[in-house]
Amino acid sequence: MAQITPMMKQYLEIKAQHQDAFLFFRLGDFYEMFFDDAVKAAQELEITLTGRGQGEDRIPMCGVPYHSADQYMSRLIEKGYKVALCEQVEDPKQAKGVVKREVVKLLTPGTMMNGNMIKEKENNFLVALTHFTDGSFGLARTDLTTGQCEVTHIAGDLDEVIQDIAISGAKELVVSSNLEASVLKRIQDKCSVTISIENETELPREYEHLVDHLRMDQLSISFSRLLQYLIRTQKRSLGHLQKVSHYQNNSYMKMDAHTKRNLELTESLREKKKAGSLLSIVDQTVTAMGGRLVKNWIDRPLINEQMIEERLTLVTSFKECYFEREELRDELRHVYDLERLAGRIAYGSVNARELVQLKRSLQKVPLLKEYINKIAPAFTDKWFKEGHSLTQLIELLERSLVEDPPISVTDGGMIQPGYHQELDSYRDASLNGKQWIAELEQKEKQETGVKSLKIGFNKVFGYYIEVTRTNLHLLPEGRYERKQTLSNAERFITPELKEKEALILNAEEKMEQLEYELFVEVRDETKQYVNEIQNLARAISEIDVLAGFATISEKRHYVRPTFSKERLIEIQDGRHPVVETVIEKGQYVANDVHMHQGREMLLITGPNMAGKSTYMRQLALLAIMAQIGCYVPATAAKLPIFDQVFTRIGAADDLASGQSTFMVEMLETKYALTKATENSLLLLDEIGRGTSTYDGMALAQAIIEYIHNTVRAKTLFSTHYHELTQLDQELTDLKNVHVSAVEESGTVVFLHKVVDGQADRSYGIYVAELAELPSEVTKRAEILLEKFEQKASQRSETQRVKEEQQLSLFMEDLEVTNDLNHKRTSTVVASQEEKVLKKLVKKDVLNMTPIEAIQFINDLQKLLK
Ligand code: ADP
């Protein structure tokens, strides 16, 4: 390589410190990228790849204009990349040699403050993970747009860590550079996050107040890693970070990502949209911050009865005060996103228009307080204790800013008349000057007799007198000085016009500058109130969510749930909150669920499409709704407080991760069986469907037995294996229920009603008929079905014994498999390992040449890969 230019040397030095980011290197009016960055960016951004230098030394290069760089950076970040923004930090004219450059900011997916990635009703969390030497984990997260900070400590269960990262929807994870590769890999297999490194975990003094209430060092360390990363990347005030709250995963109902997806809690399975999810029903919020909170509540239902009851009692109050509630909600519609405004205030990026939005929102507080006083007086103080100091802020904003300021903060027009004397005097000067000009225009018109004469202004020539060509002859010789000739007019000036112009422009320039200074003063003053604004935002979001729960509960006739300490489920006329809204009005068939001793497990049979899955999901959704503090769709509902909910759907596809369908089904089932407790809710839908009939049926039976005898979780198990319904003879806590269907003149009518007892047949062929399969096919299927059923009843005893043996092997394996969630099954791994061990034992090692030994080890390795 030929000699590197000094600028390239500078580039390479800076790039070396930002290996994992695209380096946007400022060169004049462009940000340039070089080498691999350029090749990759050209591809990702679809921009032209050029080069710098000649021949062999030509360096790949591409660039974007500085004024449109934001959009390019956002696109890269949305794709999960990071960008280091490198600016010229000295005036090129003053520079001796290469202009000094520095990275002024690192943009990453988890630290974005605006742009497409920031959804109004969703948080953008950045998570930091610390793996301690005692095997435990610390997780810290923040949403930079709101300043919310949380930490938790997890004893040693990586699955739980992964679940937590997945739930937070984090796009970026900060870890130490020596985090074990295996841990990182398991996280990356399950969550698509951008990984960032931060090794510093010292807590800077000025942030101590954020964590001084935390009682565990490990929590502070976890947060410090996050904080250090923010300090390093943001390079500006982090004054809006809120006191770190310590959340404990065992204070919430646990649900893994599969369960959340299957239950369509926050997005629909197929379209991945909010519509069709539980969130779309219970989110009746009218503010963006309320929208974010309700999503967080669904992600983490409570398990503390007192806290749940507190929310429910508030919902009751909101429900009982219809008029006040609706008026309150109307007022809330005018409240802006205070949480994010607080973030922008602390960052110093707020403009005057947003401060006026803040003012208008704060002005609503007394009224909101009044409503709450009527609806839930006991909560007025809790929610509005900050009222006092915020009044001063309102007063300042009212006094200082005009009602409709521009977005730009440098062009003036923001500050109220009367707020600042000097500013007013400049304004007067400018106003007087302009009036003088208006008068001059009148005077000149009269004196010259040119009615169309006018005085205009532009940035190049300042003020001028314009006379159209046809009127030029009316002007007395030498009255004005000619300045500019247009095609149909002439422009003139006079010395006194120029004199006034100087006065006006001078006043305006001073005015703009002073306005900016005054605005910055107001903005800085507002910064002091960030904490109060954040507290108010929290209160308003809670009010918004709870008032929304009341609204939907009333509209859809939900009922307040009660909680059973005896693990009873007594649901009368329960409905699926989403399905009932999408089918025709009044068509939804409500169903009871009764589960208690003797009915701990329900085995559900019934035709396909009868409503089995809907019935199962309905129970889980009711439990979740109850535990987030919302009323539930039923006429009466008593439920235990569940610690965890699991749903497993037979033959679920997970092609994305390259695992076979059945394998996924078994891995998921293993996960549920090993994690569930007797306080959990298990929904197993057609488990065992992904393999051959007997195989699948045997597995299903073994799983049912295992849950019944060992796990003892409340379980709904749907199956199309009718043979399994015999199990109620042996298993005392299992009962059969079925979704009824009737045959009317040769066709099946699904009643969607769940009743005790087993279904008499599966009606699969009828469903095929419904789907209008050719009649040759369905007729033939009926004949075959009869044959199969005969054969099945002749199944030999020896076969049954053999299957049971296989099963017990599987179940043993299920119990002993360690937590390593290998992509291959434990059984496959075990057999491969056995092979390797056998080969190793048999080998006569002492009589091998080194080459043979290497070959042998290589072969063994292949067996394990
Ligand atoms: P299965 O699991 O038995 O195959 P699903 O639960 O998927 O059946 O239900 C199939 C369809 O039947 C649903 O999409 C819904 O439209 C309708 N359905 C289910 N349960 C009810 C019900 N209780 N009332 C009215 N319609 C229902």
From TrEMBL:
Keywords: ATP-binding, DNA damage, DNA repair, DNA-binding, Nucleotide-binding. GO terms for biological process: mismatch repair. It holds the Pfam family MutS_III. InterPro entries: DNA_mismatch_repair_MutS, DNA_mismatch_repair_MutS-lik_N, DNA_mismatch_repair_MutS/MSH, DNA_mismatch_repair_MutS_C, DNA_mismatch_repair_MutS_clamp, DNA_mismatch_repair_MutS_core, DNA_mismatch_repair_MutS_N, DNA_mismatch_repair_MutS_sf. ATP binds at residues 606-613. This is DNA mismatch repair protein MutS. NCBIfam families: mutS1, PRK05399.1. One of its GO terms (molecular function) is damaged DNA binding. It comes from the Bacteria. Belongs to the DNA mismatch repair MutS family. GO terms for cellular component: cytosol. The keyword Iron-sulfur does not apply. PROSITE patterns: DNA_MISMATCH_REPAIR_2 (PS00486). The lineage of its organism: Bacteria, Bacillati, Bacillota, Bacilli, Bacillales. It comes from Halalkalibacter akibai (strain ATCC 43226 / DSM 21942 / CIP 109018 / JCM 9157 / 1139) (Bacillus akibai).
